[in-house]
Specification:
Length: 197
């Protein structure tokens, strides 16, 4: 069995780039506008491989406006100004890292997007399954002078991912991506093949 140990968000909504540690049972709490739905929507997209047939992004506060992946990438927020995103262009990474309870080996799954205010939709740049590596925000963030975090472009994030995890698999289709991570994280009951209940 694999346990979720981390959710990684980089240029996602108005949340700061961060690793969200998950321990056993975890609750997401906060006032309206704190980013609870932002985190839940990231998890939906990661698990479905961004297949629009299988996710349903949360509406904004009060259910007045629908949200889009593009809005999340650009940091658009109707609490602030729906017509003025935080960024004119952005490259975003959302990921989840799991650890096998038996072997202790990690596996990470995630998505990398690019978005531009001039375009109506975000561009999905990568779906990845990274065996034997627990992805962290620190794998991607660069430090500029004076000590400011900088999020690299999508192509650079993909290069870094390949460098830190040579066994990473990139998938064009959501179906292949989901099948890959399910095959690697779901193991059959060892007693079932021997006729035990």
């Amino acid at each position: 069995m694999h346990l979720l140990e981390r959710v990684v968000l980089c240029n996602w909504g108005r949340l700061a780039p961060q690793d969200i540690a998950i321990r056993e049972m975890t609750a997401i709490l906060g006032p309206t506008g704190a980013g609870k739905s932002t985190i839940v929507d990231a998890i939906q997209l990661i698990v479905t491989g961004s297949n629009s047939r299988f996710y349903d992004l949360n509406k904004s506060t009060g259910g007045r406006n629908s949200r889009s992946i593009r809005d999340y990438c650009l940091g658009a927020d109707d609490h602030v100004d729906p017509d003025a995103p935080k960024f004119p262009v952005a490259d975003s990474l959302i990921a989840m890292s799991f650890r096998d309870r038996i072997s202790g080996k990690p596996i990470s799954i995630g998505l990398i997007y690019s978005a531009d205010r001039a375009e109506p939709h975000a561009d999905l740049r990568a779906r990845f399954v990274a065996r034997d590596h627990a992805v962290s925000i620190h794998d991607f963030i660069e430090i500029s002078e004076p000590a400011k975090w900088v999020v690299p472009r999508a192509a650079r994030m993909i290069e870094r991912l390949k460098a830190i995890c040579p066994s990473v698999r990139l998938h064009q289709s959501s179906t292949a991506y989901v099948e890959d991570y399910l095959r690697r994280t779901c193991r059959a009951d060892p007693h079932a093949s021997r006729g035990f209940a």
